[in-house]
């Protein structure tokens, strides 16, 4: 079994070296899909909603993987080195500038695509629920991001964040599902 895992890991690393962006995109798509499948099952769905699962896969593959690929490259270019101050700058940008945008986009996507809500309902949902979800994010992700920038090689950072993101994605899916905008 370890031989199979070793060969798979070697193949993955080779793919990252040869085709970093497509590899990270597909990986993000697969892990986002896994996260959604888990969330669907925990929500009590007896059967997976394939359209929803595909939408989440595409979100990971077309947005999250590529965005994170370029974000980590940009942050490493802007803030070079591993000094505490440098890592703090990367974490600040990722968590206090990028994260609120990504959380709002996720809530909007979930409300519109997954739940089929109107733009007005989506806007209300984002406005009402973004603060509580973002504060939850800030209690968790800065520590993960610090570890990522301090110890994880750049080519594996997106994978690391995606793996941790499976659990966060389950939380977000369940939270997005359980919250409804207050009636006006």
UniProtKB/TrEMBL annotation:
Q: Does the keyword ATP-binding apply?
A: no
Q: Which keywords appear in this protein's UniProt record, sorted alphabetically?
A: Membrane, Transmembrane, Transmembrane helix
Q: Where in the cell is it found?
A: Membrane
Provide the membrane topology annotation: Multi-pass membrane protein
- One Pfam family from the UniProt entry? Mpv17_PMP22
| InterPro entries recorded | Mpv17_PMP22
Q: Name one GO cellular component term.
A: membrane
Q: Which residues cross the membrane?
A: 91-110, 156-174
Q: Which domain of life is it from?
A: Eukaryota
Q: Which family does it belong to?
A: Belongs to the peroxisomal membrane protein PXMP2/4 family.
Q: What is this protein called?
A: Peroxisomal membrane protein PMP22
